[in-house]
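User: Sequence in, structure out. Go.
Assistant: Echoing your sequence, followed by the structure tokens.
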Amino acid sequence: MLHNPIFRWGVGLSGAVVVAAVSYFFLTGTVQLVAYGIAAFDGVMTPLVLKRAAAE
């Protein structure tokens, strides 16, 4: 399953959406902005890490 790029990006983006939704509904101020940054980082880095894991 990790060889499929749609699966890898789906996992990464779904995690990012969850973090962004929690940030939007429950956080305010600087903490909210930091959570958005974490969501963006998660959305990009998770598929790349999963790609490396699939190569192993």
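User: And one key feature?
Assistant: Residues 29-55 form the longest helix (27 residues).
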